[in-house]
From TrEMBL:
PANTHER family according to UniProt: 3-ISOPROPYLMALATE DEHYDROGENASE
Annotated Gene Ontology cellular component terms: cytosol
Organism taxonomic ancestry: Bacteria, Pseudomonadati, Pseudomonadota, Alphaproteobacteria, Rhodospirillales
Pathway terms, separated by semicolons: Amino-acid biosynthesis; L-leucine biosynthesis; L-leucine from 3-methyl-2-oxobutanoate: step 3/4
Signal peptide start-end: none
Protein name: 3-isopropylmalate dehydrogenase
Organism: Varunaivibrio sulfuroxidans
Gene for this chain: leuB
Chain sites annotated for binding substrate: 97, 107, 135, 225
Cofactor: binding comment: Binds 1 Mg(2+) or Mn(2+) ion per subunit.
HAMAP family: LeuB_type1
Length: 368
């Protein structure tokens, strides 16, 4: 359709650099496939703080709530390390997730054949890998109250609260089971039921959902520490992993290295579908603003390009166009092009822009 509304929030550090390559893909789609997005751009994170004194403005929130999909680059950086928590760049991202109620964060870790050598793990461990991490994104210790610092009996404390309601666990578990049915039909639910009350509860609710509605999907439970270990020992055992906000954050960075680089991992953050089938959504790479390489035209744009492809798939039902972009990524990698983070012997080193241009060249070839 001609009026797909898209809000782009490039953010900080490498955010604008990797987003620039998505823009290249968007204008290609416009020109070559006559797919026109109604594109709006705005500030978020440190860039927004510098301009407006907050990490995301109410006006931007209003836009985010009304568009069909949001595409986000990355936020944060040392420049804002001393800003009060409520206005830190990360607070902008957390507000977007919370206010849009994007409770289901899908983080697929897929190993491209061409990148098997880029992983720090042995080829036979990572070949053919396809794991979907479903991270709960709007609750848990990220948002639980009370939190803060205090002085008790003259001793200073810092504290946060891990808390999950039954509906919060129930709905994310359903997303995981539904995804598993379309994949390998297996869900691993991850918590620390051995030490945490909320972990016992998590396990109970996931088991109930399983028993009531998804008995035909294989379910197993795993402690988070063991899961971190199993991800590098034998990642092939996993199909869908469902876990809480904090464990999901950590385990997805871990899973990223199976694919060769954090610069390869896309994500989709989805809300609940309304009566018409519409669901709020934000698409973002799993990585951050990478201050160590920002401004150097070195960042890998593929995580963000693949996030855009997830957007086409999940928000716009444009599977064929998403397939095209995924294939273009696969082909440029097969042709030996590498940004620095996935560089290996005999490959060709390219910049952020070089990778983007190569993608367009590949798209041109495929569409010819
Ligand atoms: P990071 O993900 O920014 O970087 C970790 C390492 O991975 C760095 O060495 C970086 O150079 C590398 N890396 C990340 N993305 C890459 C890419 N696309 N191409 C090549 N290399 C890449 O994590 P960090 O250094 O812990 O955090 C930096 C800042 O980013 C912090 O302010 C943090 O809060 C923020 N952050 C934001 C998001 C987000 O916006 N979604 C996610 C994670 C971290
Ligand atoms: C991520 C990031 C964020 C998180 C930060 C920047 C708030 O690490 O998206 O993985 O912890 O969720
Ligand atoms: Mn993270």
């Amino acid at each position: 359709s001609a009026n797909m509304k898209l809000l782009m929030l490039a953010g900080d550090g490498i955010g604008p650099e990797v987003m620039g390559e998505v823009k290249r893909v968007i204008s290609w789609m416009d020109k070559r496939r006559h797919v026109a997005f109604d594109l709006d751009e705005d500030l978020v994170g440190g860039a927004c703080y510098d301009a407006h004194g907050v990490a995301v403005t109410d006006a931007t929130m209003d836009k985010a709530m009304s568009v069909d999909a949001v595409l986000l680059g990355a936020v944060g950086g040392p420049k804002w390390d001393d800003v009060a928590r409520a206005h830190r760049p990360e607070a902008g991202l957390l507000r977007l997730r919370k206010d849009m109620d994007l409770f289901a964060n899908l983080r697929p870790a897929v190993v491209f054949d061409a990148l098997i050598d880029a992983s720090t793990l042995k080829p036979e461990v990572v070949r053919g890998l396809d794991i979907m991490i479903v991270r709960e994104l709007t609750a848990g210790v990220y948002f639980g109250q009370p939190r803060g610092t205090d002085v008790r009996d003259g001793v200073r404390y810092g504290f946060d609260t891990q808390i999950y309601s039954e509906p919060e666990i129930d709905r994310v578990a359903r997303v995981a089971f539904d995804l598993a049915k379309k994949r390998g039909n297996k869900v691993t639910s991850v918590e620390k039921a051995n030490v945490m009350e909320s972990g016992v509860f998590w396990r109970e609710v996931v088991s109930n959902v399983h028993r009531e509605a998804y008995g035909d999907v294989a379910l197993n439970h795993m402690y988070a520490d063991n899961c971190a270990m199993q991800l590098v020992r034998w990642p092939g055992q996993f199909d869908v992993i469902v876990t809480d906000n904090l464990f999901g954050d950590i385990l997805s960075d871990c899973a990223a290295m199976l694919t060769g680089s954090l610069g390869m991992l896309p994500s989709a953050s989805l809300g609940e579908a309304d009566a018409s089938g519409f669901r709020r959504a934000m698409y973002e790479p799993v990585h951050g603003s990478a201050p160590d390489i920002a401004g150097q035209n070195k960042a890998n744009p593929l995580a963000t390009v693949l996030s855009f492809s997830m957007m086409l798939r999940y928000s716009f039902d444009m599977g064929a166009d998403a397939d095209l972009i995924d294939a273009a990524v696969k082909n440029v990698l097969a042709a030996g092009l590498r940004t620095a983070d996935i560089m290996s012997d005999g490959a060709t080193l390219v910049s952020t822009e070089g990778m983007g241009r190569a993608l367009i060249g590949e798209l041109d070839k495929m569409a010819a």
